[in-house]
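Sequence in, structure out. Go.
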Amino acid sequence: MLDLTRLPLFVAASVILIATPGPAVLYIVTRSLSQGRRAGLASVAGIETGNLCQAVASALGLSALVLSSPVAFAVVRYAGAAYLVYLGVRRVLASGAADAAAAAPQDFGRTYTSGLVVALLNPKPALFFIAFLPQFADPTRGSMPLQLLTLGVLFVAMATVGDGLWALLAGTVRHSVNGASRWAWVSRYAAAFVYIGLGVFAALSRG
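Output:
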């Protein structure tokens, strides 16, 4: 059972961390600006599903096994970076018709999957959960994996709300300028720049 006296501190620290924009928020905002609110929310769902998987893996000790291997860590990191660069290149090569199709409801499943893959191939959430969650667990209060899993689920739930607000805000901005004649062109290349930049950052980052 969790130590409820530590829970308010955990919530406060989590809110501060979630409110600080990072690569995931930049990815979500870019999706929302280029494809609209629903695509942004689909990205949030995909990313937070991936983060939930990372939280479960961390609680069970699986993430520590992967991160303890330099080869495995590098494979995951470079695979995630390559996928982000691929998304950026695909946006550059997309035609105006492809942009319109990307925002269609039938493609939101693909948007969700992209967010899921981005989260799963990013080792940073695993590192974060391993470093952050144990500070608020107490081994004298029962199963550590269960406590870590509970904290991880709570963090992901709060992050879903926070990231969802970013998606809605960015989608609203997009809607307000939707009539601009060059918006589709600008948003496509801006999105490509962000995806490729995130991929390069992920590849160069050492954790």
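Check: The chain has ten helices and no strands. The mean pLDDT is 84.
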